[in-house]
Specification:
By secondary structure, this protein is an all-alpha fold. The chain has helices spanning about 1-25, 30-50, 60-90, 95-105. It is built from four helices and no strands. The model has no long low-confidence stretch (mean pLDDT about 90).
């Protein structure tokens, strides 16, 4: 069960990158950026408030579910943040801002 908890965010990340990449092209990047932001906020709060359920699901199962969906939101944020930055940044500062976006992803911001 511990392995599911550790891997759930990574699997969600994979699905989120592919899914939000396709949806961003079809439905609009700004709209999908808002959707993935809402997913990340709700799932972060859900992870923080997770507790075992009365039907027998342990805290690890609940956290794995929240973290999987959170991973989908995080996966959507990786490609969307770079594209949104490159589309709306001033030409003069575009390279610097894109470098900052990719540098911050490495440290988790």
């Amino acid at each position: 069960m511990d392995a599911w908890l550790k891997a759930s965010t990574n699997w969600g990340n994979l699905i989120g990158q592919v899914g939000f990449g396709i949806l961003g092209d079809k439905l609009g990047r700004k709209k999908m950026y808002g959707v993935e932001l809402i997913i990340m906020i709700v799932c972060t709060i859900g992870s923080a408030l997770a507790a075992p359920m009365k039907n027998g699901w342990s805290i690890l199962v609940i956290l794995s579910i929240w973290r999987f969906v959170l991973g989908i939101g995080i996966g959507g944020d990786y490609p969307m943040s770079a594209v949104i930055t490159s589309e709306f940044a001033n030409v003069r500062y575009r390279g610097m801002m894109l470098s900052a976006v990719f540098a911050m992803q490495g440290i988790g911001i």
